[in-house]
Design goal:
The structure holds two protein chains of two kinds.
Chain A (H helix, E strand, L loop, with lengths): L1 H32 L16 H8 L1 H34 L5 H7 L2 H4 L2 H15 L5 H24 L4 H9 L4 H29 L3 H6 L7 H11 L4 H24 L6
Chain B lengths: L3 E10 L2 E11 L4 E5 L6 H9 L6 E6 L2 E2 L10 E4 L11 H11 L4 H14 L15 H13 L5 E5 L7 H18 L2 E6 L2 H7 L2 E6 L2 E6 L1 H6 L4 H6 L4 E4 L1 E3 L2 E3 L5 E3 L9 E4 L5 E3 L9 E14 L2 E8 L2 E8 L11 E7 L4 E3 L5
The chains are: A mainly alpha, B alpha+beta.
């Protein structure tokens, strides 16, 4: 019995290891190659930062990176504000069609971005917004909003409405209740939601590709364009940087979110 | 400080009538207990007074002023919630000072009043603790201090001691009563615990299915319940049914049970278990007593007291005796029961 358990335990660990290798090995190889001097991935590896140096001389990529950052920050601010407010409203009030509204939050997460992107492009042209950074931000906010609402709502599920009632009974106005009681409780959820929103925007390719104009494109779009012209290890370098940033953001988000599990 | 008057309050949730024409006057400075089983409407009533719910019709007056459309935060009430609802992100002092802070009181006033409130609930030096570092009883005190520090017109308590264990509950009952007396605030509390209601209240009201069944001082309600429900819900009662005959009740088997002279007799009689005596011989003086034979089936020992279960013509009767008395009960089970006729309670037949 003991031996059997130990065997199953070992099998489980091996499987977990395999999954991690499957997930991360390609990324690790790419990261390693970004430090290899050879343009053709020749082994043995010769350590060099030449591709990073090249990267920082590539004005188009640098400009696109800054574009990506400010678009992601703007998206994060808008999506977090709107999303947190929406989550609190969904928590506080009961109204006709609330259940339907909550269900409708999920399809945007599941619908292929290609379709969302096409739909947005058509819609933005129809209403006269067209393409450009404004359109990209609008699109990113729409994509990020459900994530923020879901994460903040998860946090609110551990919040007792009695706390808001107690605050009101003590004379606190609606705003004071939100400011002093509700927001401190959901702060970690709001931060996690913001980091998700940032990641959604920063990593977004399809919707950005559809909505941006050539001069003002974002980093993923610029990378795609560069690859089409001819692949250089510079792309490995920039990808490694993006992955490092994204993973840091996600790890921090996961730490804050805890997905409503902890009080 | 103010009195609270409810006049014909009706509140429905869909087809469910939670409150059905409830009228009560809560006198200024009184400690008033609302008692009833779950679903009786007592919590709904408290929430209507607080302003968390608006009644469908009827009026709520606090200090003579109509507050039907006044929101909670403007009603100037203090409320203690069942699970205390202390703000987890604030320490004890900030919790207590919250009501003063949102009223924009000067920092110095807040510090002084919070200090006084902490002393009143005997938590003097715990101001810097967080709620999760406190015991249940301490949290209870913080919740109370927080509710009264703003000197509200009325204090509402929703099952305030429900989450505490038995021994602590008794301590807190004494404490709650002391604090209420000290500040003299009109207090309305909801409970399903009849003992708690009897201990704390100056007056109690019994609710059932959204209606006020009976209200009055605890002793009066206990000694003179007017309905079968009130008799059974507040304390235990043995109930006999029969036909009214003069100032007595004739049971189906011919036994005659007398009421006290001058009683408005009814077809249902209640007797509290503690007023019935168990003897092995028929009692000598029978003129002013009701007595009959019964068979002792079981005794349940509970320390100071013991409950005897007896059977008579298929009816199970309960008698409360002192714990030391059960040894003297006859072994064969055949006993005589008797009680003074002025302990016979006539129950109105509203819910027979």
């Amino acid at each position: 019995m003991m031996a059997m358990n130990r065997f199953l335990n070992g099998l489980g660990r091996a499987y977990l290891g395999l999954v991690l290798v499957f997930l991360y090995l390609p990324i690790l190889v790419m990261a390693a190659m970004s430090f290899n001097r050879s343009e053709f991935y020749q082994l043995p590896m010769v350590y060099s930062t030449v591709w990073y140096e090249r990267l920082f001389e590539n004005q188009a990529l640098i400009a696109a990176a800054w574009n990506s950052v400010w678009i992601a920050v703007t998206t994060t601010l808008i999506a977090t504000g709107l999303g947190a407010a929406a989550a609190i409203a969904l928590f506080r009030y009961t109204f006709r069609g609330k259940a339907l509204l909550q269900v409708l939050l999920f399809p945007p997460i599941a619908i292929p971005w290609l379709i969302t992107g096409t739909a947005m492009l058509i819609f933005f042209y129809a209403v006269g917004i067209g393409r450009g950074s404004r359109a990209v931000i609008l699109g990113h906010v729409a994509l990020a909003l459900p994530y923020v609402i879901v994460v903040v709502s998860a946090r609110l599920r551990t919040f007792s409405p009695e706390l808001e009632e107690a605050a009101r009974s003590l004379g606190a106005s609606q705003w004071q209740v939100t400011r002093y009681v509700t927001l401190p409780w959901i702060a970690s959820g709001v931060i996690a939601g913001a980091l998700f929103a940032f990641a959604v925007s920063f990593d977004q390719f399809v919707v950005s590709y559809f909505l941006s104009t050539p001069g003002e494109s974002t980093l993923p779009v610029e990378i795609y364009a560069a690859i089409r012209e001819g692949f250089t290890p510079e792309i490995n370098a920039v990808s490694t940087i993006i992955i490092a940033v994204s993973m840091t953001v996600m790890l921090v988000a996961a730490r804050f979110a805890k997905f409503g599990g902890e009080r | 400080m103010a009195d609270v008057r409810l006049d014909r309050i009706i509140k429905s949730f869909g087809n469910f009538k939670a409150l059905d024409e409830v009228s009560i006057h809560f006198a200024e400075g009184a400690f008033y207990g609302l008692l009833g089983p779950s679903g009786s409407g007592k919590t709904t009533l408290l929430r209507v007074i607080a302003g968390f719910l608006f009644a469908d019709s009827g009026s709520v007056l606090i200090g003579g002023e109509s507050v039907e459309r006044v929101p909670v935060e403007k009603r100037d009430i203090g409320m203690v919630f069942q699970n205390y609802a202390l703000f987890p992100n604030m320490d004890v002092a900030d919790n207590i000072g919250f009501g003063l802070r949102v009223r924009k009181a000067p920092a110095e006033t807040i510090r002084r009043k919070v200090g006084e409130a902490l002393d009143l609930v005997q938590l003097g030096d715990l101001g810097k603790r967080r709620p999760h570092q406190l015991s249940g009883g301490q949290r209870q005190r913080v919740a109370l201090a927080r509710a009264i520090v703003t000197e509200p017109r009325v204090l509402l308590l929703d099952e305030p001691l429900g989450a505490l264990d038995k021994a602590l509950r008794v301590d807190m009952q004494v404490e709650l009563k002391r604090i209420q007396r000290e500040i003299g605030i009109t207090t309305i509390f909801v409970t399903h615990d009849q003992e708690e209601a009897l201990t704390l209240s100056d007056r109690i009201g019994i609710l059932r299915d959204g209606r006020l069944v009976q209200e009055g001082p605890p002793q009066e309600v206990y000694n003179h319940p007017t309905s079968r429900f009130a008799a059974g819900f507040l304390g235990d009662a043995n109930i006999f049914e029969g036909a009214v005959e003069g100032e007595a009740l004739r049971l189906a088997d011919g036994t005659v049970l007398r009421y006290a002279p001058g009683t408005r007799c009814a077809a249902a009689m209640a007797v509290r278990p503690e007023f019935i005596r168990i003897t092995s011989e028929p009692p000598v003086e029978t003129e002013n007593h009701n007595c009959f034979e019964a068979r002792l089936t079981q005794t349940v020992f509970a320390g100071a007291t013991a409950t005897c279960l007896l059977e008579r013509n298929g009816q199970i009767l309960k008698v409360l005796v002192s714990g030391g008395a059960i040894g003297a009960l006859p072994a064969d089970g055949a006993v005589h029961l008797s009680w003074p006729r002025d302990k016979s309670i006539a129950l109105g037949d509203e819910d027979l």
